[in-house]
Amino acid sequence: GGAVEVAPDVMVGASMNIPVGTFERFRSIEEEDYLNDNDGTGGTTDFNYLYFSEQFTSDLVGVNGRFGVSARANENVRIGLSIETPTYFAIDESYSTYLETEFDNGDFFSYGDGPGQDAGSGTFDYTLRTPWRLGLGSQFNLGLISISADMEWIDWSQTEFNASRFDFSDVNRDIRDALRSVVNVRVGASVD
């Protein structure tokens, strides 16, 4: 990013932003019949032990641009305008599951680590586009007190998902129907 003074007290700036992130989750469940309540009698199965695990990883990388201009209207007032492009995210997700059971008679079964045992495993790639953001702000210096205010407009209904192997039409329609544009307002003051 960078900025330049294009005229006295008028600054123009631009930046390119590249958000990168990873989310990982691992869950496991273990159950053991340590009191041997399930011994195969009285309608029970001779269950001894169960282990179940799920792993999920999501990697994302995005890009967007931000542009702004700020000017000093007079000695005590500064105003600014900013425009942020949508952020375009590429998201790669992978998931896997594993299950094993053991019985009192020594039988052992597992699923998820052998060839062709991929019902609970796979990958999914998709994109996410966030909406445009428009901002307007000002700062007023009143002697020892400085007051700042800004507002930002975002139309969340413009959020959109896409994938080559999945049709997000229903999801995107739900987003357009359920979300709307909002204005965020922030006001602050400081004393020197």
Which ranges are low-confidence, i.e. pLDDT below 50, for 5 or more consecutive residues? none
Number of strands: 12
- Taking all Cα atoms into account, the compactness measure Rg is 28 Å
Choose one word for the global shape: elongated
Give average pLDDT, whole number. 94
Please bin the fraction of helical residues. under 10%
Largest sheet: 12 strands, antiparallel
> Strand content of the residues, in percent?
over 45%
Class by SSE composition = mainly beta
Count of individual helical segments? 1
Cα(first) to Cα(last) distance is 30 Å
Helix/strand order: EEEEEEEEEEEHE
Supply the key terms:
12-stranded antiparallel beta sheet; elongated; 192 residues; mainly beta
If you had to describe this structure to a student in words, what would you say it looks like?
The chain has 192 residues and is mainly beta. It has one helix and twelve strands. It has one helix spanning 169-178; strands spanning 2-7, 10-17, 20-32, 47-74, 77-84, 88-103, 108-111, 122-129, 133-142, 145-155, 160-162, 181-191. Strands 1, 2, 3, 4, 5, 6, 7, 8, 9, 10, 11 and 12 form a twelve-stranded antiparallel sheet that branches. A hairpin with a 2-residue loop joins β4 and β5 (77-84). The chain starts with a strand and ends with a strand. The relative contact order is 0.15.
